[in-house]
């Protein structure tokens, strides 16, 4: 009887160990993730369709204003100058960013189309991480254009030429393409074998990477370094150029010229600071996840791809007299 009781206890312990071993997460046969689910606002699913109304209006405004600006610059031969070519580059970047992010967000809100393939997700991540720094670099080149125009007006025609715009465009593309390409590559190399639910409206790098089963510290480190090196250096150089501009404006003896220069450059600087401030707020709210509701950085991320594209053509374009006249001629010609 004693032997039989010990044998039963030994068998019971053996079965217990086997159950615990099989229940271990490392022993599950998990299939690799083939698609992601974008859950925009996990705690506020019921009111997403209300948010789609202002987002769709801003999207239409951004697309319409940038398309009108591009058509005006193309149609009006008097606008075929370097400064307006830079505005056209900015409008192209705004359109691409809007089309990359906002239609998918609206499809989620309207039709609950939350699925996105791995390839589509990493492509969206690449475009966002590349074209936002490209827009920052375009702001830098435009600030340099204004600096030369105000501080060295006699040398402006010889410095800011069509060749300068071509070189600037090559610099903008290759600098940011090479610097941001590792971000989606690092995310794509991770092994996604667990949850496929992304708590974001878009395929943001960290939101996707944290779903993997591997180490994401290289992803976080590279994104931090690349963002601060690219956008941080651009912001410092932009502020420096506008400091030189303000110093030059103070020396202008003509009050009308000084007022016009301050009005133009002031509106440009406010828009640039808005671009970087919104980005910084998003970064810091993302870091303070425990203190800030998770919906705040998600909403800021979406708005950062929508509000600047809607404001850029209005502030840079409509406030410029030559472009305003070109737009009036365009609509008069079309209608």
Automatic annotation (TrEMBL):
One GO process term, biological-process aspect: cellular response to lipid
Gene Ontology cellular component list: plasma membrane
Example GO molecular function: olfactory receptor activity
Secretion signal, residue range per the UniProt entry: none
Transmembrane segments: 51-73, 85-110, 116-143, 164-181, 225-249, 261-284
UniProt subcellular location: Membrane
InterPro entries the record matches: GPCR_Rhodpsn, GPCR_Rhodpsn_7TM, Olfact_rcpt, OR51/52/56-like
Domain (G-protein coupled receptors family 1 profile) ranges: 65-316
Membrane-protein topology: Multi-pass membrane protein
Name by which UniProt lists this protein: Olfactory receptor 56A4-like
